[in-house]
Amino acid sequence: MKGIIEIEDMEFFAGHGCFETERKVGNKFKVQVCLHYNCEAAANSDNIEDALNYQEVYEIVDKEMKINSNLLENVAKRIMDSLSAKFPQLEYARIKVSKLNPPLAKGSRVGCTSVCLEHNF
Predict the structure, then answer these.
(1) Which of 3, 31, 79, 118 has its CA 20 to 30 A from that of 89?
(2) Which of 115, 121, 93 is nearest to 29 (CA)?
(3) DSSP annotation of 2
């Protein structure tokens, strides 16, 4: 039985960016996670030990968001790698990292820029 867990709009303040100012001043980010896994054991047992615990997913994302990176691709890959190491039952993962109000050309108005990585396990 396939289960899908989605955690949406996790908000973080971090110093990701290519420019020194971005790393010093920081910015707001949002992370979306979509995880496909075999949930048959959890569905039958009603036991958190058999489930893909989304509190642990959040803690992994939080830990990786605290490590500054130049590129959002690097942040998303570290999240992906950490999730796959913790949850061997993962079959598919999609990680989206968005930088809110990114510093672009003077006078530009952009809500966010995002990087999305997908992986089949």
Answers:
(1) 31
(2) 115
(3) E
In CATH terms, the fold of domain 2-120 is: GTP Cyclohydrolase I, domain 2 (3.30.1130)
Other Cβ atoms less than 10 A from the Cβ of 77: the count is 18
Instruction: Look up the pTM and report it.
Output: 0.93
Task: Tell me the average pLDDT of the chain.
Answer: 94
DSSP string, 43-86: HHH--GGGS--HHHHHHHHHHHHTS--S-HHHHHHHHHHHHHHH
The answer to whether residue 104 scores a pLDDT higher than 80 is: no
Q: What's the gap between Cα 118 and its chain centre?
A: 11
Neighbours of 80 (CB within 10 A): 20
